[in-house]
Amino acid sequence: MDEVNATAVQDDLTGRYLTFDIEDTIYSLPLTSVIEIIGIQHITHIPNVPHYIKGIINLRGKIVPISDVRLKFGLDERPYDDKTCIVIVLINDMNVGVIVDRVAEVVSLERSNMAPPPLSDKRLGDSYLDSISTLSEKVIMNIDVVKFFQADMAELLAPEE
Asked: Nearest to residue 38, comparing CAs of 84, 3, 80?
């Protein structure tokens, strides 16, 4: 794809978000960062990483680290089912996967309907929030993908001491 077409595609995705559920809360990721959605598959465990980093997968020849959003937010682990999936996102030229309970839909969110996240308990993931939106009486927590993965990627990519 040439640069002009890539810019046009990027512009079409701006303001659009992939929503997903974790328990009874709706979260979103900017569609500009989402590469694909795949089903749960075999995840190879990596020793000595935080408990919410489930491991890595081989996705068409690329090694992709996988995090479980529930665990990162301090929620209880639950068995994966047929609605559980992995959302592959692109962060700083690296594919990373997040396990979510259920992907809901793609929505368009207006900046005018976004508010800064309130200051509260950081264990619940508020430090990873970009903003909070409302859409048809629903509250949507918009995740800042760079902040969400920043510490994890530094740990995974840190040189051995």
From this structure: 84
Average pLDDT over residues 50-55: 92
Which tokens sit at 35?
A: 């590469």
- The closest of 131, 156, 126 to 142, measured between CA atoms, is 131
CB 32, CB 142: distance < 8 Å: no
Q: How far apart are the first and last CA of the chain?
A: 41
What are the tens digits of pLDDT across the range 92-115? 888 999 999 999 999 998 887 788
Single pTM value for the model:
0.82
The rounded distance, in Å, linking the Cα atoms of 89 and 34 is 4
Average pLDDT score over residue span 67-81? 92
Chain centre distance of CA 52: 13
> Any residues with CB less than 8 A from the CB of 52 and at least 6 apart, and which?
67, 68, 69, 70, 71, 72
In percent, how much of the chain has pLDDT > 90? 53
Q: What is the CATH T-level fold of the domain 14-155, as seen in this structure?
A: OB fold (Dihydrolipoamide Acetyltransferase, E2P) (2.40.50)
Neighbours of 80 (CB within 10 A): 15
